[in-house]
Amino acid sequence: MKRCLDPYRYEHTIGVAYISVALAMKYGVDLERAEIAGLLHDCAKAYDIQTIIQKCEKYNIIVSEEEKQIPQTLHAKLGAFIAMHKFKVTDGEIIRAILNHTTGKPGMSILEQIVYVADAIEPGRETTVKLTQIRKNAFEDLDLATYQVLGYTLEYLKKSGKIIEAMTEKAYDYYKEKINQSRVN
Ligand code: DGI
Ligand code: FE
Ligand code: FE
Q1: What is the tens place of the pLDDT at every residue in 97-132?
Q2: Which of 73, 77, 108 to mutate to test the pocket of ligand 1 (most atoms within 8 A of CB)?
């Protein structure tokens, strides 16, 4: 990863791997799986958007019209492919965690949630009041932290006028419902 990424992205990657392992300790996930998923989650991030789209075409990775309009999220799809074919990861759980780390999705596995949340809370991310609370929640209630990161992301996307992928919205609705259910029970 040090050779693949610029120093800033490399630092971020180490942060995500480190926090993924810490969360794996808390939630009873295999530590090595969490570390590998964290280390590889942004392995396609160094490419510019044009290159990512070209590589997806070259490797026959299906890119939807929606994804072409929102190329920020495509590095996750290409990253999952590179993790499989270049880094020889055969563990489907790890591949899915890389694949879904940007938009999230409804009904994620614990490992997927760990990488999704770690990506947002790692120490290199700029601290805000909200993020401080999410960092604390992540080690107490992973569904709540997942929901809050989704909310935080959607708020940022709306504020900056970006197109929102259906999956991001669906994931938000799913975790909102899950949090509400757990409060009723
Ligand atoms: O790769 P990172 O910068 O570590 O973080 P990331 O993979 O979570 O997100 C990359 C970018 O993708 C980030 O700026 C948020 C953005 N993103 C996530 N969901 C959506 C999205 N961008 C758009 N336009 N629409 C989405 O639904
Ligand atoms: Fe990413
Ligand atoms: Fe990341």
Answers
A1: 999 999 999 999 999 999 999 999 999 999 999 999
A2: 73
